[in-house]
Design brief:
alpha+beta, 4-stranded mixed β-sheet, 4-stranded antiparallel β-sheet
């Protein structure tokens, strides 16, 4: 009581002190009389030296005068702190009332954000402090605060006792308004003072208080007060209502205690910050138990194993299991369990939506979940039964299987004609060591595509190397930030405290890395766009079919009964004076029925001719063998040749169907009825229908007896569109005609036409879409966007909502505060399946959007797919955040300063809290790897190549109907090559750029995953193009232009994340103090501004540095067409039909099909110069 009276008197004296800090000394003298040390000009004189065995020496010399700089003085923190006003130090310290915190009544602790103060004071400006009363002193703290009229201070607690004149001081500081203090973990050593600097958050100011106990009398006073505190704490513990006020002790940011670890007693609540990380409970009560009070974060007591979950001890009642390994009371590790068995990892009662089964909780589907389970189960079981039956069938069609596999091999991407085997020309496969970034296999668009992948591989490698260098020269702990896994709540408290402090201290390192990577990425994208343009112009100098073609627009509407091609060719020759090879008119195939009939006829008669060619080749081989073996028996050979000729003639009269019918009848007569696989058996009727449905749906194989109607009527009923492709003899003549006719009045049947130069190859034209008007194309694209949006909504309702509902019913361990591995695996499966469905859906939408050229369709597909993936990413991020938030709230997660997460209301504060940061980092990592970066691409070789090949070989070999060209269609490679990989790579890079919003420990992991995933994707695409897809040709740079422009989005994401992290950063100068919504609006403005400026740079710089024009080729059309199987004539299905059935060409134009190039016949009169023998297929046996 005497000490309290002296403190109050000193407070009144200080309040009357003049502005210069001078006073009458009455207060100081009074304080000294009661054991308090007076403050002289802001400096605390050292107490006289004393021995360990006795009190201080009597008659100690008085403190020296201020300003002498004697070593015996204890200075305040250095001036670099720039405090507005240094408070006086002593046994009574004047403090001010906090604007942001209200203090408890007398006798309770006053909790600041990171420290615990004992406040004796009154009369605060905004909030009422505790009235003068009994002082409650927590063990290990002796700071007394007499406060009045202050603004939000963060105080520090000093440890008990001063030895040899030195004070052991814990300093709590916060983010100052005028000048931020150093971050937690940094060491500031003051003369005659020891202890690391702990950093906490304060709103305006943070001050350090160091109290030195000067006399033996005050030491006795403190001991008396500590005894009183122990009595109060004992009463609280015995009532089972320990408040856990120690949760706000100094050092809540995870700094190690500066004094030796405290003694641990049984059944005593302790804060985790007062314990050593590896400090164990006594043997008498070896298990840590967490306090049941949710307002008391990181407060534990040591209990017996039978006391785990005891409400009488004031601990969590759900932690009933004493883990002998962890030495911690925990709940049972059973998701969905609400009531665990006593002291066992079994469940007695499950949550709603779970069914108790053998001591575990099994998730029970509800509502739509049951429907999904039933549908997928039925489909899976049916597919399994069909496959088992398919594998058990007899082999009855080995000939059709061999024919289909040979055509499959011939349809792959092959080189141009070369001289082999004695001068004969053939087309061989590209070797696997082909440099796809240099060679033009598959067209110039393919080369640009592989260069695009290499750019992002180099980017990931450079980013990883830069991060490794920065971490090695700064702080290696950054590699662990956010990555530490915990098993107990006490370990989690230490991790959160350590992580928050380290994140604040090292935020400038992450920001500097982001700035360097951002500058490098922006500069690299601009340079790369220029290099891509240069490469395209270099490839474009090679002579291809597009160099000889010009598009004639404005063709009048005419019927198929008129010789439109000949009339237009003669008109162009007359008007331009140039040599025209021919005109390929785009006939209107927009009607689905008409297009279906045309393609059926092309497939049917093209396949029949292929079958006839195969039979002729087989017959020629038989005759050659007969001539060798004939010798004296020449008559027998002649008879056999006559029989073969008659069989061939019969086949051509009646078609291959007659032979198939005979073979089927023979097979039916030979198969026993009991086997079930005769043509009249139940297995054929049941599973044969499944075969035919799969063949028609996935491979477009028509029914066995299907025969298209008469083609002459079909040809006559067609109508022209407004487009025709004019082919010239040389490129120079094409340019002369385009420039000359641009100034002339070109008319045909009173309709003005225009000749234009267009960059396109024959295989690029989508003939069924040429006749569509622009309005129809726009409507198709809008319809596709709506379908995509509705599909995403359906995906949310049918899949995501049941998933969130199921996960929300699960329970999580409070020691981890993150979703379990099962939830992570479910999310991975959800992400992969969603990406696959988006892949198929976007391909269908792009196919039906009315694009005229394949490159435009691929560009549209890339845009649809990218936007859909971004929408799906946002959806996945929202779901993952909701799940993580639910898990953390239910596990009583708290921030580094002890506040429960559920008490946070500000969105930015929630996002910046370290538990949320740690959980979001984990979710981003799970979402990126392996779900998005790798898993889907690992599945591609299996489900897009091997599984269709494996199943269809069994279907073909067991169906006698699949002969000839129908076997070719059945064994066609299932998945053609597309440019959707652009979108895959871009989305992966965008996800990588989000790493700046999570703890820095994930930077190395995500960049490493991106690097090796992209390397795998590059080599898989390299093999896929050369061996696992049908041949193709992407000759334009349309898709690459869209992709290079889309690279502004990752750069914008990176800049926005850097701005977010740099806001109010330690050691930073930028601080936006608006509301959270206004700050997020600022980030959105930064994102949009970067996109606009970056696109402007792309549109200005790339054309400026790429002004060169491609050189005109000196080759003629005949020279190029002689080595190029696909021309402007034989890729047009309408022209192929008109060549044979209207113009009666001999030989007629034959449709170009990959794998059947050897069937093409030369006819220079109609622009056909290519003729070659059959290429060498791969060996399958």
């Amino acid at each position: 009581r005497a000490a309290e009276e002296a403190a109050m008197k000193l407070m009144r004296t200080e309040m009357s002190t003049d502005p210069n800090g001078e006073d009458s000394g009455e207060g100081s003298a009074e304080a000294s009389a009661h054991g308090f040390t007076p403050i002289v000009d802001g400096k605390l004189p050292m107490s006289p030296r004393r021995s360990r065995a006795g009190p201080p020496h009597q008659g100690a010399p008085p403190p020296p005068p201020p300003g002498k700089g004697d070593d015996s003085e204890l200075p305040m923190p250095p001036p670099a702190v720039h405090l507005p006003r240094r408070p006086p130090l002593g046994a009574a310290v004047r403090r001010s009332a906090a604007q942001d915190h209200s203090h408890d009544a007398a006798g309770n602790e006053a909790s600041y954000r990171n420290t615990t103060m004992h406040v004796v004071g009154s009369n605060s400006t905004d909030r009422s402090h505790a009235a003068v009363g009994n002082e409650t002193s927590h063990r290990n703290t002796t700071t007394h605060v007499v406060g009045n009229n202050a603004t939000d201070h963060s105080h520090a607690a000093t440890s008990d006792g001063v030895e040899e004149g030195n004070s052991s001081t814990h300093v709590g500081s916060g983010n100052l308004t005028d000048q931020p203090r150093e971050a937690a973990g940094s060491r500031e050593w003051h003369r005659n003072m020891r202890g690391p600097l702990d950093v906490g958050k304060a709103t305006d100011q943070a001050h350090a208080v160091s109290v030195s106990r000067e006399s033996h009398a005050i030491k006795k006073t403190h001991e008396t007060m500590r005894n009183i505190t122990d009595d109060i704490a004992a009463k609280q513990n015995s009532s089972g209502n320990a408040s856990g006020n120690a949760g706000h002790l100094a050092g809540a940011h995870g700094a190690k205690p500066h004094s030796p670890p405290r003694h641990i007693g049984c059944h005593e609540f302790m804060h985790a910050a007062t314990l050593a990380p590896d400090q164990a409970c006594p043997k008498d009560c070896p298990y840590y138990a967490e306090s049941a009070d949710k307002a008391s974060a990181c407060v534990f007591k040591c209990v017996l194993d039978k006391e785990c979950g005891s409400s009488a001890q004031g601990v969590r009642v759900d932690t009933t299991i004493a883990d002998p390994t962890l030495k911690h009371c925990r709940n049972c590790d059973i998701p969905g369990c609400t009531t665990c068995s006593e002291k066992q990892d079994t469940c007695e009662q499950c949550a709603d939506g779970f069914t108790l089964m053998w001591g575990a909780c099994v998730l029970t589907p509800r509502g739509i979940e049951w429907a999904l389970v039933v549908i997928f189960s039925c489909v899976g079981i049916g597919a399994l039964v069909w496959y088992i039956e398919l594998s058990c069938r007899p082999v009855v069609n080995e000939e059709g299987l061999k024919r289909g596999l040979i055509t499959r091999s011939l349809s792959k991407l092959r080189q141009g004609r070369s001289s082999e085997d004695g001068g004969e020309e053939t087309r061989s496969l590209y070797p696997l060591d082909t440099n796809m970034a240099r060679e033009t296999a598959g067209g110039s668009g393919t080369t640009l595509f592989f260069r695009f992948q290499i750019f992002w591989i180099v980017w990931a490698l450079g980013g990883l190397f830069l991060w490794a260098v920065i971490v090695s020269v700064t702080q290696s702990d950054l590699l662990e930030l956010g990555m530490k896994s915990v098993k107990t709540p006490r370990a989690l408290c230490s991790v959160i405290a350590w992580g928050k402090g380290l994140q604040l201290e090292t935020m400038h390192v992450l920001v500097k890395f982001g700035v360097a990577l951002y500058i490098w990425t922006v500069f690299g994208t601009l340079v790369f766009a220029v290099l891509q343009r240069h490469k395209y112009l270099e490839i474009d100098n090679a002579a291809t079919m597009k160099d000889f073609m010009a598009v004639l627009e404005g063709v009048p509407d005419l019927k198929g009964s008129e010789p439109v091609e000949d009339e237009l060719a003669n008109l162009i020759r007359e008007k331009s004076g140039c040599n025209v090879i021919g005109v390929s008119v785009a006939w209107d195939l927009t009607d689905k029925n008409l297009y279906s009939q045309v393609m059926d006829y092309i497939d049917y008669w093209g396949g029949e001719r292929a079958d006839e060619a195969e039979q002729d080749a087989s017959l020629s081989g038989t005759r050659a063998a007969g001539e060798v073996e004939g010798g004296a028996s020449g008559g027998a050979v002649e008879d056999r040749d006559a029989d073969d000729t008659a069989a061939t003639a019969n086949s051509r009269r009646h078609g291959v169907r007659g032979q198939l019918g005979q073979e089927r009848a023979l097979l039916a007569s030979q198969q026993p009825a009991s086997g079930g696989w005769s043509q009249n058996g139940w297995r054929w009727k049941l599973f044969g229908a499944v075969d035919r449905a799969a063949l028609t749906l996935f491979f477009g194989v028509p029914e066995p007896h299907h025969r298209p109607p008469g083609v002459e009527d079909l040809v006559m009923s067609m109508k022209t569109t407004g487009h025709a492709y004019v082919v010239f003899a040389t490129e120079s003549e094409r340019d002369i005609a385009v420039e000359g006719l641009a100034r002339a009045d070109l008319r045909y049947r009173d309709r003005r036409m225009e000749l234009l130069r267009v960059q396109a190859e024959p295989e690029s034209v989508i003939w069924r879409n040429v006749g569509l008007t622009e309005a129809v194309r726009v409507k198709a694209k809008i319809r596709g966007v709506l379908v995509l949006g509705m599909s995403l909504i359906g995906w949310v309702v049918l899949v995501y909502m049941p998933y969130m509902n199921a996960v929300a019913r699960m329970d999580f361990d409070s020691g981890n505060q993150e979703p379990s591995g099962l939830v992570a695996y479910l999310l991975t499966a959800l992400v992969v399946s969603g990406n696959v469905l988006l892949y198929a859906l976007c391909a269908i939408i792009a196919e039906r959007s009315g694009f005229m050229y394949q490159e435009e369709r691929e560009a549209g597909y890339m845009i649809f797919y990218t936007l859909a993936l971004l929408g799906c990413v946002c959806l996945d991020a929202f779901v993952a955040s909701c799940i993580s938030w639910s898990a953390m709230v239910r596990s009583n997660a708290h921030t580094a300063d002890g506040r429960p997460l559920e008490s946070l209301t500000d969105l930015k504060e929630i996002f910046d809290s370290y538990p949320v940061q740690k959980a979001l980092g984990f979710q981003l990592w799970v979402y990126c790897f392996p779900a998005t970066f790798l898993l889907g691409y690992l599945a591609e070789p299996i489900f897009l190549v091997y599984v269709p090949y494996h199943i269809m070989t069994r279907v073909v070999r067991s169906n006698v109907d699949l002969k000839g060209w129908r076997a070719d269609l059945a064994l066609t490679i299932f998945a053609p090559f597309d440019m959707g990989r652009y979108a895959d790579v871009l989305v992966s890079v965008m996800l990588t750029c989000l790493v700046f919003l999570v703890p820095a420990g994930y930077v190395a992991y995500i960049f490493t995953a991106l690097l090796f995933s992209n390397i795998y994707i590059y080599f898989w695409d390299h093999y896929r193009v050369l061996r696992a897809v049908p041949g193709f040709c992407f000759s334009l740079n349309v898709v690459d232009n869209f992709a290079t422009n889309f690279m502004v989005v990752p750069c914008a994401i990176m800049l926005t994340a850097i701005i977010y992290r740099a806001n109010c950063m330690e050691r930073g100068s930028f601080c936006f103090r608006g509301t959270s919504m206004s700050f997020y609006l600022l980030c959105l403005i930064v994102f949009a501004s970067h996109c606009v400026l970056h696109l402007l740079l792309m549109s200005v710089l790339v054309p400026h540095f790429c002004r060169s024009t491609p050189r005109a080729t000196t080759k003629t059309y005949a020279e190029v067409a002689k080595v190029t199987p696909a021309t402007w004539f034989n890729v047009n299905p309408s022209w192929v039909l008109r060549s044979e059935h209207y113009y009666k060409h001999n030989p007629p134009a034959q449709v170009f099909v990959r794998g059947r190039e050897h069937l093409l016949k030369a006819n220079p009169a109609i622009g056909q110069f290519f003729e070659d023998r059959k290429a060498k297929p791969e060996k399958f046996w």
